[in-house]
Amino acid sequence: MSENAEDKAVSIPAQSTGSATLTKNAAPGETLLKVTGLQKHFPIRKGLLQRQVGAVRAVDGIDFEVKSGETLGVVGESGCGKSTMGRLITRLLEPTAGTVEFEGRDITHLGVGAMRPMRRDVQMIFQDPYSSLNPRHTIGTIVGAPFKLQGVTPEGGIKKEVQRLLSVVGLSPEHYNRYPHEFSGGQRQRIGIARALALNPKLVVADEPVSALDVSIQAQVVNLLDDLQQELGLTYVIIAHDLSVVRHVSDRIAVMYLGKIVELADRDSLYKAPMHPYTKALMSAVPIPDPRRRSAKSERILLKGDVPSPISPPSGCRFHTRCWKATEICKTVEPPLLELKPGQQVACHHPENAEDQAPHDTVLLTAARDAVELVAVGTAAELAEAERAAAAATEEPADVAKTSGPEAGNAGDDAAAAADAGTEGESPEPTEK
Amino acid sequence: MTELSKSGAAMTEPVKDSRPPSAFLEVRDLKVHFPTDDGLVKSVDGLNFTLEKGKTLGIVGESGSGKSVTSLGIMGLHTAGQYGKRKAQISGEIWLDGTELLSADPDYVRKLRGREMAMIFQDPLSALHPYYTIGQQIVEAYRIHNKVDKKTARRRAVEMLDRVGIPQPDKRVDSYPHEFSGGMRQRAMIAMSLVNNPELLIADEPTTALDVTVQAQILDLIRDLQKEFGSAVIVITHDLGVVAELSDDILVMYGGRCIERGPAEKVFYEPRHPYTWGLLGSMPRLDREQTERLIPVKGSPPSLINIPSGCAFNPRCPYADVPKDNVTRTVRPELSEVGSQHWAACHMTQEQRERIWIEEIAPKL
């Protein structure tokens, strides 16, 4: 990026044709995007009359805010609604219910025409750099398209501006006349980023921006996004399934499960002391690139089965079918997203690392007993031991919760939470070199 | 140290004769080239490794580094293509349990395939036939190699589905692939590949298409099954986390060649090739404190038609100018021993690499 140092002062394309409300820049820390009760149900139609017989509840009532200048990471498994959420806030999909406010203005039901000026401020980077670039257009046409669509003529002409953008994202300005097939995956993703930046947006929604790329290229793109944010003061919503990438890029992180946000917290709180059992399980499932961890007696929470169908999500807490802490209340009452610690919201009746929200309800569901498997990865002896432990746990269900979360007993004890450090089972030997 | 040399497949430099090796699987100077209109694509260009039963070898590399081509080569699946002149050119030797596969009768290799060696593919949806039930597909795989009646084979299919953790296996055996979720399909694929107790199992990106919680289940399953069946396993992946979870030994590929291989601990803790450093540096890690920035490898992987002269990594290597006389751009480095059972192909001296690793790379990771 050194050759782009002079590009730091980025000229903002003339916005005179835009509506007046859009020209003021939100100060850092101000709420840029506010989402309330957002829902998207995709109808399932059947039969001759195409009657609606059900709905895929892809996004089922989520609330969050994105502050100017920050990066919100959204994680979850496939089918949890994270991409649908991304398309809803960019208004590529029409929400079923709820509101989306951008800079204090309700944009939930703006029409195509009314939405157009907004498009300048909200841009998207897509996952697959192969299908998101038109193979028949040159790079110049692709990156220059936003100017033509918005009727904006940047200073010095479109071509010059496109070439400048190309150099901002680390491509050569000579690439102007080339076609997408002449580029590698990483370069294509850079083209997608250049296109998203063309109109100097305030909010960039990136849906899995690096998951189609090789590891070494992934790092280049992650660093590029980082640099651009610092230079241009961008606000990002980054949707990804890779927890380590999300931790690297985000300031705050929302964890989604079956169309709901189950935990929304600052990066450090989330990774050091996750409160929702799902977050905890998700993080413990990430393979750690360290062979010594494997031989160390590490503890991993292995969720059984798959994510239930979003057509008929489980009642109450949606995670109760796979949760090892689930009790009767989880089956019947949906837990609200509450701020249990400053900067950490969680929707759970029996959170980890925090006070139990339903202490009276202690009887575990039968499903909870075998919802989870604790695996001590290591020698065969250890495995057998784990099996024995699992067998014992089936007899004494209450113990499952204890063994699964050693720090669950010390609710609210920050020291214990910090020691937990977001990863399961510290190896006895120091892992740092 | 003694522990390390005992662990893992003993990896020895190949001897130039063609006597059957003592190792269970030995690949010697494997080359797989594809003629195309644009030129010869050297997907694998001289690969050597050995693998013992009960051990796992992890092959890591970026897309286009030749990982999958290697696995298909071992399975003998390249020669099967009917492309006339466009047939893949394969040379070298692949010794499986005392038999050389490349020069063997294709019918003989076909009998081995599925029984002695089996494969788990990346995308279970495209690897399973949509028209047949899971049970039919497993039964077919079993009956090709075993003279049993349909009932026995079906019992075996149910037993395998149960073993890989599919609930209600006696019912699910009659399901079609589309009725299974991604994780269950991958389990069914594993059941199918293990139905004949193969001695060699090749898993090509077994978890790439899966979610992280399901990935953890599948990795666990592969590990358990290996312990139970004692097979030799080759795991091919781009994810260093997956490799660290499963492998005894690691082979890092770049531009169709092996650039570093050794016991997993060595490759992670004392890597001796700048590309391996690059891979470790470009990966955000959950088990470490948050780093300010990732350290990416500049540039992009080489084209296999036009592999850079000298060291294939030289255009991307930050240390390409450390060795004298421009040797990195003219001479292709050979694998040399850098430790016990540990090889790397780099022109820098071992002292230089050790110094760079300890002083410059390791502190930043």
From TrEMBL, chain A:
GO BP annotations of the record are: peptide transport; transmembrane transport
SUPFAM superfamilies reported for this sequence: P-loop containing nucleoside triphosphate hydrolases
Q: In what ranges is there compositional bias, type Polar residues?
A: 13-23
Q: Where is the signal peptide?
A: none
Q: Which residues form a coiled coil?
A: none
Give the highest taxon in the source lineage: Bacteria
Q: Which UniProt keywords apply?
A: ATP-binding, Nucleotide-binding, Transport
Bias (Low complexity) ranges = 408-422
Q: Which residues form the ABC transporter domain?
A: 33-283
Q: Which InterPro entries match?
A: AAA+_ATPase, ABC_transp_ATP-bind, ABC_transporter-like_ATP-bd, ABC_transporter-like_CS, Oligopep_ABC_C, P-loop_NTPase
Q: Which family does it belong to?
A: Belongs to the ABC transporter superfamily.
UniProt name for this protein: Peptide ABC transporter ATP-binding protein
Supply the source organism for this entry. Streptomyces fructofermentans
TrEMBL record, chain B:
Which GO terms of type biological process are on file?
A: peptide transport
| Keywords, in A-Z order | ATP-binding, Cell membrane, Membrane, Nucleotide-binding, Transport
Task: List the InterPro entries hit by this protein, alphabetically.
Answer: AAA+_ATPase, ABC_Ni/Peptide_Import, ABC_transporter-like_ATP-bd, ABC_transporter-like_CS, Oligopep_ABC_C, P-loop_NTPase
Q: What membrane topology is annotated for this entry?
A: Peripheral membrane protein
ABC transporter domain boundaries: 27-280
**Any one GO molecular-function label of the UniProt entry:** ATP hydrolysis activity
Recorded hits in PANTHER family, A to Z, give: DIPEPTIDE TRANSPORT ATP-BINDING PROTEIN DPPD, OLIGOPEPTIDE TRANSPORT ATP-BINDING PROTEIN APPD
Write down what this protein is called. Dipeptide/oligopeptide/nickel ABC transporter ATP-binding protein
Q: What is the lineage of its organism?
A: Bacteria, Bacillati, Actinomycetota, Actinomycetes, Kitasatosporales
